Amino acid sequence: MSNKGEKLYEGKAKVIYGTEDPGIVHAYFKDDATAFNALKKGTIAHKGTVNATVSTRLFRLLAAEGIRTHFIDQPAPNELRLERLEMIPLEVVVRNIAAGSLCKRYGIPAGQVLEEPLVEFFYKADDLQDPMLNDDHVTQVLKIVTRPELQQIKDLTLKINQALHVFFVRCNLRLVDFKLEYGWDANKALVLGDEISPDNCRLWDVTDNRVLDKDRFRMDMGDVESSYQEVMKRVLEA
Hints:
By secondary structure, this protein is an alpha+beta fold.
């Protein structure tokens, strides 16, 4: 990566670097893949390029819907320039169709369409294995945000879900569930951060429910790289 500044953070999927502008960071998307809180590790060829490119398309889509994100531009296939945010340590999960941990926790059959979108919160803390939180945990115990701020996060999350659902229908994909992360800008305004990609979205083919996301890696289903490439192709053509 050219002109990279100081490494600010390295996570499972990305490395964040500073730039000459203190309000802008540079994200390098890795091909590394992890699952089950990094108990499973591997590599998905060209994953960084797919995730950066899909995120670019979806961030631009959301911007057109009046939703502010930290996206600035994509200077290289596997790199994004982003507005620097004070990230909120919450993973916000939206579920439209039962899958994954929801089925394990409550015995709900996989594939059951939920009557309305379900929003869940998880504490972003690797050492605690990202425990699930209710509203009181978020606002009273951990004091991550206030109740009005949490409601703002919920409302924005549901708006994003609706916009993405409509778009993915055009891609012949079912948006099963996905994870969002938010941060505060310099003026304490709420901004969508992180990424939106096959790494943090469950996406099934509309016709046969074929899995086209990271579950192919998690569950050793094979064809992981080609599935990621298929998502990118559909997203760019929609």
